[in-house]
Amino acid sequence: MKLQVIGDPVLHSKSPIIQGAMLAALGLDDITYTAHVVRRGELPQYLAWARKHGVAGFNATMPHKEDLIPLLDGIDPAARAVGAVNTVVLRDGRAIGHSTDGPGFAAALEHELRAKPRGLTVTLLGAGGAAKAVALALAQAGAARVYVCNRTLSRAEELCALDASGCLVPAGFDAESLAQCAARSALLVNCTSLGMEGCPGQFGDFSFLDALPGGAAVYDLIYHPAETRLLAQARRRGLEGRNGLSMLIWQGVLALEHFLDRPLDREKMADAAADALAHY
Ligand code: NAP
Fold it and tell me: Over the range 155-179, which residues count as b (16 or more CB within 10 Å of their CB) and which as e?
């Protein structure tokens, strides 16, 4: 069986390490998982090639997560809500898309921070693709309130309008708005690209961290660098902090369940992937 990850750029992707470690832990040495550069606009040709050459499924990263949707035979409700797919299963002549980013975040939260979304009040920074997946996963899992704080307020408003429960509340990204939201939150999640290696931009001011109640935690979706300035500042204030590696691992575990079409020992899979990444 052949599995792949496609994107542009993609050769830096950790998915081959993660999936390779899980497949090895399952003793499935005959299944390969490899990275392939597919440029924007090349998806129809890739899909035809993948079908012809017996690819059983693939993960998709930048810039394909949204462009794939019209080319698929079906998508699951989570992917439909987010408007993006990161996992495609090719089976019985059909291409079905899934989104494991949001469920992967929820699983990471539970395993890394021992926090359940139900009843939680969260300050979420950003309103891009990752923020959408995380915010909707939190809302669907019963979070009490998620303040979606974004530089471009209209994008936060559009994101919040996707959820009818009223759990998602748009807010600004200025110091005062961030502090007001943080003061009511047990968890702060960074879904912006601020602090990511190779990306422009950095938080100018971390005073919003002072507003978080004692015992609050900070989760940064970024894992490159392993410790962002946000996480370092959170730890300096005695707050628990985690980077996005666990989300990356857990979305991979859930993707593998889709590819193999069976439930896996998820913790064993996540441990195998984390171990492989630690030795990489
Ligand atoms: P995206 O769609 O491009 O969204 C970027 C977000 O960052 C937007 O909300 C944008 O605000 C905000 N932003 C960018 N520059 C800013 C600045 N100078 N000041 C304030 N806000 C700024 O990106 P994405 O796909 O959501 O990814 C976001 C981050 O999550 C990336 O670092 C990515 O690597 C990470 N990620 C991690 C995982 C994981 O598994 N751990 C999964 C997915 C993504 P505007 O709307 O105002 O432009």
Answer: bbbebbeebeeebbbbbbbeeebbb
Tell me the pLDDT tens digit for each residue of 72-99. 999 998 899 999 999 999 999 999 999 9
Ordered domains of the chain (ranges, CATH): 2-99+246-278 (3.40.50.10860), 102-243 (3.40.50.720)
With a 6 Å cutoff on the Cβ, whether 63 touches ligand 1 is no
Q: Does pTM surpass 0.90? A: yes
Please tell me which residue in 2, 14, 52, 65 is annotated as part of the active site: 65
State whether the beta carbon of 126 lies less than 6 angstroms from ligand 1: yes
Ligand 1 in reach of 154 Cβ (< 6 A):
no
pLDDT band of residue 63 (cuts 50, 70, 90) is very high
Euclidean distance between CA atoms 92 and 156, whole angstroms: 39
DSSP-assigned states of every residue in 76-121: -HHHHHHT--SEEEEETTEEEEE--HHHHHHHHHHHHH---STT-E
Residue 150 beta carbon below 6 angstroms from any ligand 1 atom: yes
Helices (H), 208-265: 208-211, 229-236, 245-260
Q: Which protein residue's CA is at the shortest distance from atom 39 of ligand 1?
A: 248
Q: Is the Cβ–Cβ distance between 5 and 36 less than 8 Å?
A: yes
Look up 132 and say whether it is catalytic: no
Return the H-helix or E-strand segment holding 171: strand 168-171
CA-closest residue to ligand 1 atom 40: 248
Q: Which residue lies with its CA nearest to atom 1 of ligand 1?
A: 128
